[in-house]
Amino acid sequence: MLNGLWLGFFIVAAVSALAQWLIGGNAGIWAAMVESIFAMAKLSVEVMVLLFGTLTLWLGFLRIAEKAGIVEWLAKALGPLFLRLMPEVPAGHPAIGLITLNFAANGLGLDNAATPIGLKAMKALQELNPSDTIASNAQILFLVLNASSLTLLPVTIFMYRAQQGAPDPTLVFLPILLATSCSTMVGFLTVAFMQRLRVWDPVVLAYLIPGALALGGFMALLATLSATALASLSSVLGNVTLFGLIMLFLIIGALRKVKVYEAFVEGAKEGFDVAKNLLPYLVAMLCAVGVLRASGALDFGLDGIRHLVEWAGWDTRFVDALPTALVKPFSGSAARAMLIETMKTEGVDSFPALVAATIQGSTETTFYVLAVYFGSVGIQRARHAVGCALLAELGGVLGAIGVCYWFFG
Fold it and tell me: For residue 381, which phi and psi values (nearest 5 degrees)?
């Protein structure tokens, strides 16, 4: 699947560039595409350098958590749930604890913590995978849920809006929470359908229903807070949780007689191997995305969508937010650039800017996640992972548009 997808990016880019050259007379399109290839190769290395430090840091703290028994405890607590959702993963396996830590970090917007933990979880799942190159059901479920971007505190979106002068940076908090819930629900149900998971099992419901009620209660509580209090809570809670997680690992490790410094260094050394394995996959995917963008294929698609929406007689205001949605599956940096550009062009509190911010906070860089997570363990055949992840992405985008019309339309 990834082979065909990667080749398809280049083919679509070539067709788009050929049309611009022969029909539009834009001979410079070829130079722009070649320049993009080298720029993306350079960016791949820059991204890897930035990710390298984070991987080293969090793999070190994660080794402390493993030796302190935290991961094992999480695995036991969630064993009954994952035994039904991931039947090929033995009860109490370390992968379950790592998956839980990854989801918790993603939910709190702690991306720097989530990625290395997620890579560690994918490696643990690969140890149970009978194939070296074909994704297992458990790996697919984990990746799709990870790519669905369930975020409870989208602090970075608040920061972007504040930088652009928004009087209420947290205005999109609840829309993002609702939209990202749509994304995660679609991703989970799609994988459950493909893998015939028993979602109505009493044990599964015993875990999911309290979680849904807790989320609803949390949303109701936040809805009673003022914008200032909500912004302050979001920022403080995210940072306190991040540092608190570090201190939790250190304190429990020390109490259980773990040599925390030696354990940290031991785990941090794994960052070298992970970085070495990731770079080729990053270069391959980012260069393909760069060519697709430089060819003008994305702009052409946006114009087509606008004409279709007008033909259907629908409101077209949301179309101006779609650049963020179109590039988000491929590149997080490109999506951020599109979001900021929309805010500057349309106004930070304009409808397109609010939709773009909600999309940015409720969707994930699907192909980046595929490349990094599967690339780190050598998976080449993703099976239904790509389709399910893209449906989750679509669910998030449609949810964001619908919720924004509900809140701001």
Answer: -110, 110
| Pure H helices in 196-296 | 202-223, 227-255, 260-268, 270-294
Q: What CA–CA distance (Å, rounded) separates 103 from 247? A: 19
Q: Tell me how far CA of residue 364 lies from CA of 66, 68, 112, 115, 199, in angstroms.
A: 28, 32, 14, 12, 24
Buried b (16+ CB within 10 A) or exposed e, 53-76: eebbbbbbbbbbbbbbebbbebbe
Distance of CA 161 to the CA centre of its chain: 20
Residues 1, 382: Cα–Cα separation, whole Å: 6
Identify which of 103-112, 116-125, 389-398 has the greatest average pLDDT: 389-398
Please identify which residue in the block is written with the tokens 């937010």: 321
Say if residue 161 is exposed, middle or buried (CB neighbours under 10 Å; 0-12, 13-18, 19+): buried
Task: Tokens 């949390």: give the residue.
Answer: 218
| Per-residue pLDDT tens digits for 220-230 | 776 776 656 65
Q: Whole-prediction pTM value?
A: 0.68
Cβ contact 363:394 at 8 Å:
no
Pair 124, 95: CB distance under 8 Å: yes
Mean pLDDT computed over 112-135: 81
Length of the chain: 409
Place 135 in a pLDDT band, splitting at 50, 70 and 90. Answer: confident
